[in-house]
Amino acid sequence: MSDAIPSFPATSAASAELKRTYTKVIWRLMPYLMLAFIINAIDRLNLSFAKLRMAEDILLSDAAYGIGAGVFYLGYILFEVPSNLYMQRVGARATLTRIMILWGLITVATAFVTSPGQLIVARFLLGIAEAGFFPGLILYLTYWFPAAIRGRITASFFMAGMVAGMICGPLSGTIMAHLHGWLGLRDWQVLFVLTGLPAVLLGVIGRFWLTDRPEQACWLDDEQKQQIHTALAGESRPSASHSGFVGALRDPLLYVAGLVCFCIYSASNTVSYWLPTLVQGFGLQDLQHIGLATSLPFMTALCAMYILGRSSDRHMERRWHLSLALLTAAASFWLLDLAEGHAVLSMLLVSLGAAAALAAMPLFWTIPPALLSRSGAAGGIAIISSLGNIAGVLSQTAVGAVKTATGSLYLAFDLIAVLLVLGTLLLLIAIPAARLAPEGKALA
């Protein structure tokens, strides 16, 4: 992870000292945050695998599953902005650890639902519990890391989510294949219990491990704290013409970014919740084989995130890197319909499209901090994330309805491809490169 630290614009001695300081910060914070994100991603993805077995037990239709997947985001959206604003008052440690403990307990409780209605309620409560986790982490990164390295830091953070995708398939398949009947529980119930408990444990540990801000870190000496303060204070944000949360709400680019986020999340959420079902439609039936196959797109995405994150930071360019990822995903999803009946070609297209859609997320999240003032960042990031998460409500409900009506997911992926193209056009036309320029230097 220390590879994320480039040379800083300073004397060689000062740059070396700053690099050593940030190496220490990275090894202190990032393993915990990445592990938290892995567990968070697994506790979202587990439903897509549980569906393969729980559908028969609780009479869950594809339409009801789509509602259950989508209603999570409704709860998330309703409480996302208040959670991030509250985080500024009570601190990141108290907020993030509370969220982890609550979502872990609700994930465990989901094992005991007996009807589609109960599952929908459980997912809504999970959304409320998780609200603020992702935007809180994005905001937390801005407290510690300057823009010069935030692209790779953010990419590393999202790469943890891809590791979760690689782990979740084989892990879920193994649990459901071999632990049916454990403690009298069915296979999908065991899955929810065993993937929910680690979040509770990590939340408890976080109370003693996390530090809210650099100046409060007892594991840094005074000189190191000053180095971080200077690195963060040296950032100029000429693009932020507003001040505070209310000022951020008056900036049209806040909503443009939210719409771009909506398009990206429509794709990434559809991949996350429907990938096992799609792969099953290619002819695979064994749960362990499905789990292994679904890990391939996440492995590809892991490589794409690393390459695009490094390139984006090296060239200090965000828009065209993000556009490339979005258009690649759109083309892959559109071609998927033409490859129907060809399992290998379909799997290759799904892997490429999913990897590009997932790799777009860390690229996108380097943009909002450049658009917002520091005082408006907490609420502004939450607003953008909330607008993006509306896609979780609408797209998953729509995908479930399309699958129920047609018996196929291909039309749904065609619609996602159209949204990705629209998102690309909106990004390139409505967000000027100059608004993302560090220290007054416009980006290409």
UniProtKB/TrEMBL annotation:
SUPFAM superfamilies for the chain: MFS general substrate transporter
Keyword Transmembrane assigned: yes
Main location: membrane
Cell compartment(s), UniProt: Membrane
GO cellular component: plasma membrane
InterPro entries linked to this entry: MFS, MFS_dom, MFS_trans_sf
Protein name (record): MFS transporter
Topology in membrane: Multi-pass membrane protein
Residue span(s) of domain Major facilitator superfamily (MFS) profile: 29-435
Keyword Cell cycle on entry: no
Name of one Pfam family that matches: MFS_1
Annotated GO MF terms: transmembrane transporter activity
Annotated source species: Pseudomonas alkylphenolica
Source taxon at top rank: Bacteria
Spans through the membrane: 25-43, 63-83, 95-114, 120-145, 157-179, 191-210, 253-275, 287-308, 320-336, 342-365, 377-397, 409-431
Keyword field: Aromatic hydrocarbons catabolism, Membrane, Transmembrane, Transmembrane helix, Transport
